[in-house]
Amino acid sequence: MGDAVSVSTETLTGAAELRRFLHGLPGVDQVGAEERAARLATRSIKTSAKAYAIDLAISMVDLTTLEGADTPGKVRALCAKAAHPDPADASVPKVAAICVYSDLVAEAVRALEGTGVGVASVATAFPSGRAPLEAKLADTRRAVADGASEIDMVIDRGAFLSGDFQKVFEEIAAIKAECGEVHLKVILETGELVTYDNVRRASWLAMLAGADFIKTSTGKVSPAATLPVTLVMLEAVRDFRARTGRQVGVKPAGGIRTTKDAIKYLVLVNETAGPDWLSPEWFRLGASSVLNDLLMQRRKLTTGVYAGPDYFTLD
Amino acid sequence: MFEYAPAPESRDIVDIKPSYGLFIDGEFADAEHSFKTVNPATEEVLAEVSEAGAADVDRAVAAARRAYDMVWSKMAGGERAKYLFRIARLIQERSRELAVLESIDNGKPIRESRDVDLPLVAAHFFYYAGWADKLEYAVADPRPLGVAGQVIPWNFPLLMLAWKIAPALACGNTVVLKPAETTPLTALAFADICRQADLPPGVVNIITGAGQTGRALVEHDGVDKVAFTGSTDVGRQIARSVAGTPKRLTLELGGKAANVVFDDAPLDQAVEGIVNGIFFNQGHVCCAGSRLLVQESIAEELLDRLKTRMATLRVGDPLDKNTDIGAINSAAQLNKIRMLSDIGEQEGATRWSPPCELPDRGFWFAPTLFTDVAQSHRIAQDEIFGPVLSVLTFRTPQEAVEKANNTPYGLSAGVWTDKGSRILWMAQRLRAGVVWANTFNKFDPASPFGGYKESGFGREGGRHGLEAYLR
Predict the structure, then answer these.
(1) Strand positions, DSSP E, B217-330
(2) Is the pTM of this model over 0.80?
(3) Residue B372: CB atoms within 10 Å
(4) Which of A47, A151, B241, B389 gives a 20 to 30 Å CA spacing to A310?
């Protein structure tokens, strides 16, 4: 990639060209990538660094509920939590956004009005992505119309795995057109892509097609986000910016439950993509239970004692 | 900015005594003379350590001989194994203490002594404990050699001790071991572990001292086997002194390993491998990947990535858990690294280091990269034994092999490519004892290690490692 070939949607029109480009990306050695992620996970983040990391992590949370049993009441409760994660302590930052199914966007937008918390809607036949393009577009259109500030779409993994990169590309581009100014996060569902080579290719594919963010997982497939997968995606956004000048965000989602987990991701960002990505604008944590653990650790740092789980609201 | 606050590992777990004697025949005894060992990160004196003279060496060899004749050579392999297993478990139990002590005396980052050195030390004892009662499956009619005189270097003090002592004891030999003069403390802690394990007196003797002591040990008539790890110069002297005697000899000496990166390599992992290859343990590694051979078509991009990565290396307090590069082990070594780096500049190579603040006290050297290096430059030929990488380029696989082999050394090499057939093609042609594929500086007790040409002879580790201690 040392040459000065500019990469843009204009230069990669044909399916064959797209395929050639994605297969020309440097490979990922599985053992090496996992080793690097594991080594970064041994960083010891203490005292002032920990306090900084906890507040940063809270501000990056996409507080998520994606259940068939979701109700407007449940979503309102979550919105209250998102705007004031710890009602007893006003210095706790608000989270970045809440993340809901598209039919609950309007409810969330109402509840969050004036708080500055974003509303992200999953769309495009989440989580499987198995629906006709018209349905996916309609899903997206409705969420945008209802006031979603971010769309979390899923890619067509079937098309990707069968080598039809062009179809995936066009679908992302079509959804992006539907989004307009609304931020588009593209979920790669890395647990179904399996190899890191695939993760790297899917990352580039999504970025080339116009993604504002690339996101690991729906949370419905195991494994969800892992450190090495996120490492590979962070390398991809770093290289993409070096090559095109455009910065793309990263969102690991699913399986991030403890403050320790969250801090490991921040270290990964800091030492892979770099400090430019250390803000909610460029890095998000898709999670729900992690928030209470972050609040608990935060209170431990400020007061010196642990408060029990009953001192933090379950929403 | 996400600044990592200091995260120092506590020193409280180690108890450094003001002075240490020699460990001979199961007892600590002071020698007539002594020397100081310092913390290379602070230059603080850690302890006074006895310097073994000729008479002390005599006593140690005699104790080892007695233990060999009376106890150890007669003991069933299964019984020897019990002692080795016990030692391995004690090392695990005391691993935090040993890791902190190693970092204080040697200067290596605690992350490495904790995550690499100590686990490998214990693994080595476990591995050879398992062989002790199965030697006839390794060689026909296995018989021990007798007393082994072992001299080890300062770069991996406890690990090199394990590489030497574990196979020797498993095979039924007794040992007199001399640790390096700048890093004696973990060997002395190991002596304490031998006592804790109730190892019969005289089976392991630790004598501290400098070159004189080492020479007296190597040249002692009562020694049946000499094992040395260290510089090629000293190895040559030892080979001369042992020539014409019945002593058996193994030498593990220097290296100037090539790390060969092809254009189809997994680049991000290759960058990690290059960093691991040369900056691991401050580059104080005989098998360090000190020559980077990169295919010309990707040289520029790879170097960009490497420089970006090097800028994230954290240099400083070895006891901080986030430190990647610790202190240079001694003033003498620091001078050597400085001298060779200056020569590199004078010869016309381009020197680069990331901006990094070095502590005021102690011995420090920033991670350094040389580009525009020619094969004839001294920095491409001499072992620097520091965090200094020389970058050369090649165009074809044939050229890569020629350049990689064009060195008097032959300890290790690395190959980075996504193409399996090329890995095999390279491995067949590289004259190096160890060839790593898509990784570097990876060790395992089951895997033999050793060199070609001026990197020495004999193998340590694995089944091959037993042969050096059996007749």
Answers:
(1) 225-229, 248-252, 258-261, 291-295
(2) yes
(3) 15
(4) A47
Q: Which of B1, B3, B4, B423 best probes binding to A when mutated, by most A CB atoms within 10 angstroms?
A: B4
Looking at the fold, whether B263 and B200 belong to one and the same domain comes out as no
B381 lies in the same domain as B395 = yes
Question: Given its phi and psi angles, is residue B134 left (phi above 0), alpha (psi -120 to 50 degrees) or beta?
Answer: alpha
Q: Which of A43, A49, A267 sits opposite B3 (nearest CB)?
A: A49
Same domain, B200 and B347: no
Structural domain span for residue B213: 19-253+453-467
Q: Which residue has the tokens 């030692």?
A: B87
Q: Which ipTM did the prediction report?
A: 0.94
Q: What is residue B1's predicted lDDT score, i.e. its pLDDT?
A: 84
Give the Cα separation of B275 and B368 in Å (integer): 11
Contact flag B272-A35 (C-beta cutoff 8 Å)? yes
Instruction: Please report whether residue B12 resides in a domain.
Output: no
User: So what's the pLDDT on residue A315?
Assistant: 84
pLDDT tier for residue A12 given thresholds of 50, 70 and 90: low
Q: In B, which residues are within 8 Å of A28 by CB distance? A: 266, 268-269
B106-138 pLDDT, tens per residue? 999 999 999 999 999 999 999 999 999 999 999
| Chain B, nearest residue to A57 by Cα | B2
CB B199 within 8 A of CB B170: no
Token pair of B427, please? 């491995």
Same domain, residue pair B461 and B384: no
Percent of chain B with pLDDT over 90: 100
Tell me which residue of B217, B197, B191 sits closest to B26, measured CA to CA.
Answer: B191
pLDDT at A3: 40
Spatial distance between the Cα atoms of B228 and B249, rounded to a whole number of angstroms:
8
Note if the bond before B367 is cis, omega within 30 degrees: no
Q: Tell me which of A44, A199, A234 to substitute to probe the interface with B (most B C-beta atoms closer than 10 Å).
A: A44
Q: What average pLDDT does range B381-392 have in this prediction?
A: 98
For residue A175, the enclosing domain spans 30-311
Is residue B120 within 8 A of residue B162, CB to CB? The reply is yes
> In total, how many domains does chain B have?
2
Is the domain of B115 the same as that of B140? yes
Query: Do A49 and B418 lie within an 8 Å CB cutoff?
Result: no
**Quick check: B178 pLDDT over 80?**
yes
* CATH code, domain with A76: 3.20.20.70
Kindly list the strands in the beta sheet with B434-437, ordered across the sheet, starting from the edge strand earlier in the chain: B350-352, B368-371, B388-394, B291-295, B258-261, B412-416, B434-437
Same domain, B364 and B377: yes
Pair (B45, B133) in one structural domain: yes
Q: Is residue B61 part of a domain?
A: yes
- Cβ of residue A266 closer than 8 Å to a chain B Cβ: yes
> Is residue B383 classed as helix, strand or coil in its secondary structure?
coil
Residue A18 belongs to some domain of the structure = no
DSSP code of A291? H
Give contacts of A23 with chain B, Cβ < 8 Å: none
Portion 267-296 of B in contact with A at CB < 8 A: 267-269, 272-273
Q: With contacts defined as CB-CB under 8 Å, which chain A residues touch B1?
A: 275
**How far is it, in rounded angstroms, from Cα B201 to Cα B195?**
8
Domain-embedded: residue B6 = no
CATH number at residue B367: 3.40.309.10
* B339-376 residue pLDDT tens: 999 999 999 999 999 999 999 999 999 999 999 999 99
Domain count, chain A: 1
- Does B344 fall in a domain? yes
Mean pLDDT of A52-72: 97
Determine the pLDDT at residue A109. Answer: 98
pLDDT at A14: 84
